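Lecture notes, unit on protein representations.

Consider one protein chain, 215 amino acids long.
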Amino acid sequence: MTGVLRGGDIGSRPRPRSLCGGPLPAPTIIADAVTCKRWLLQWRAILIHDETRVRLRRRAHSCPAPRTPLWLSLAQGWCALSALHSRIETHIERALQAHHELSVREFSVLDVLNRQHSGEGGHLRMNEVADAVVLSQSATTRLVNRLEDRGLLTRYLCLTDRRGIYTDVTDASRTLLEEARPTNDAALREALREASNRSELAPLVAAVESLAPTS
């Protein structure tokens, strides 16, 4: 799945709105399982944020939380989103571990770092890598250390800022990524196909698949 989603690409489909009234943002890029995961987590965070705001607002006014259809719909949507993300990640994890001895998070970090370039802003600091793969900075640092021990990553000093240390992929990791990417993409398609057979997940699967380029 590759492609860039721009303002007019969604066609006539209405943009979903949050419980607090604002539109839920469409993703800018859905390229593969990495960005798919990032998009799903972004939507889940928005739903959690909206639910928390409404709960605090009701508590401030001493109002009980009614079990309205809108509230139930929000809760059901969050559960479905969480379930779809878990299914996709679990399916891809099994495939990557079985064929390439990689976890989803390891693949995500390698994939993000492999997309660096030598132009301005093309190299990522550790906090930027952590944000890209939706992990804490400490967890990302530990993950990078393990991949470096396996010879898949290397670190170097920034030429313009001696205090800056960057991380880059090695030839071995580029080869591993080239071999693992078809496995990753096939597992993503399989997970979406299986999820589409469940009525509560089918609308979300359709939303993800609609982001793929038509040409």
